[in-house]
Write a structure and sequence with these properties.
The chain has 378 residues and is α+β, with helices and mostly antiparallel strands. The chain folds into two domains: 152 residues, Sandwich (Jelly Rolls), CATH 2.60.120; 197 residues, Orthogonal Bundle (Transferase(Phosphotransferase), domain 1). It is built from nine helices and 19 strands. GO terms for molecular function: ATP binding; protein serine/threonine kinase activity.
């Protein structure tokens, strides 16, 4: 059920004046921190769209006593054979559900009875009483049916999301060198709610944000956009690959986040950005020939480690200037392992679908799908 709104409808009522009695009670007032922070029963009361009570607080009205009934009576006019009773959270009550339980607006009973023309209760009119009760019953049944459907749909969506997260967590736990798992709240706080001022750059996969973790570490957060060519398979490949290798010329992965709408990767922050920005962008870097030579040697060392020295042989498949990052001392580090492929020592090559960036593909790989480590060197 909605934690912020509860609505009752009475249908088929005879037009005229009615007495509406609302009865509120709370079964139990816990004294834990969850209730104090998000378990409040504070709401506005509307009848026929008119505000009758502002910030109605069950606990305050009962002086904090459980099982204590509070009644409110109102006189309202029915003009279109219809009555609407609405309990609405207005910013001071429950806004979320941290765990399973009962929160938000609460009502224990209500009654609607018609008035005669002289303003007093018309107890002699059996027809009006029958219509009133019938309309109330229909309204309550409709309300319960709608709320029941919403509760079922919400529970189904929640279970599906939880099941997906459990599967993805199991996949992550099977990865060699299991990565750290960050919560979405941690990453959101680190990037100042993904502020535009923290964007380091954008690629085909999505934006990269600068962030600061609670322990003081400065990180780069790679957010995969919904239109990215990098899907779940590439996301898991990147995590598995970079978690299994460690080298001074490979970017370091701090962890990932999977409980957000889009996957997030958390890398070490490299102050000087990408190599293509250093060469072609508007920067103050002075890349003389000696510096460029050292950068090339560093990239070669990183590739040699991937191809020959690591516990598994890896072909990157997308080596280009934008996938080489520079630290404060202009040491290069290879990044973006979403397209990487593993192969065994006994294999001379892989026959696979072509992937990578046009203009950077080796001819034999681009034309025939014949993949070896030499494709990275090209």
């Amino acid at each position: 059920m909605s934690p912020s709104s509860l609505r009752y409808f009475g249908i088929g009522l005879k037009n005229g004046m009615y007495s509406v009695v609302l009865q509120f009670a709370e079964i139990f007032f816990p004294d834990d921190e969850t209730w104090k922070s998000v378990g409040k029963r504070i709401f506005n009361i509307y009848i026929q769209g008119d505000l009758k009570e502002t910030d109605f607080d069950i606990k305050k009205q009962t002086n904090g006593k459980s099982y204590t009934v509070i009644q409110r009576q109102y006189t309202v006019e029915v003009m279109n054979n219809f009555i609407d009773i609405h309990l609405f959270w207005a910013g001071k009550g429950t806004c979320c559900i941290p765990e399973q339980g009962f929160y938000g607006p609460s009502i224990s009973a209500l009654s609607v009875s018609s008035y005669g023309s002289n303003g007093e209760g018309d107890s002699g009119s059996q027809r009006n009483s029958t219509i009133s009760r019938t309309g109330l019953v229909v309204g309550v049944v409709v309300c319960v049916a709608v709320l029941g459907f919403l509760a079922f749909a919400g529970a189904f969506v929640w279970r599906q999301k939880r099941r997906r997260l459990e599967v993805e967590m199991e996949e992550l736990f099977t990865i060699v060198g299991r990565p750290n798992i960050f919560s979405y709240g941690e990453i959101k706080s680190a990037t100042d709610s993904f502020s535009l001022s923290n964007i380091l750059g954008r690629g085909g996969y999505g934006p990269v944000y600068k962030g600061k973790l609670l322990d003081g570490r400065i990180v780069a957060v790679k957010q995969l956009s919904s239109t990215s060519h990098q899907g779940k398979k590439e996301f898991m490949t990147e995590i598995a690959t970079i978690s299994a290798v460690q080298h001074r010329n490979l970017v370091k992965l701090h962890g990932c986040c999977i409980d957000s709408k889009t996957p997030l990767l958390v890398y070490e922050y490299l102050e000087q950005g990408s190599l293509d920005q250093a060469i072609f962008g508007k920067t103050d870097l002075n890349l003389d020939w000696r510096t460029r030579f050292e950068i090339c040697v560093g990239i070669a060392r990183g590739l040699a480690y991937l191809h020959e020295e690591s516990s598994m042989r890896i072909v990157h498949r997308d080596i280009k200037a934008s996938n080489v990052l520079l630290d404060a001392d202009l040491n290069p580090k290879i990044s973006d392992f979403g397209l990487a492929r593993h192969y065994k020592d006994s294999m001379t090559h892989l026959n696979t679908g072509v992937a990578g960036t046009l203009g950077y593909l080796a001819p034999e790989y681009a034309m025939m799908g014949h993949l070896t480590e030499k494709a990275d060197v090209f």
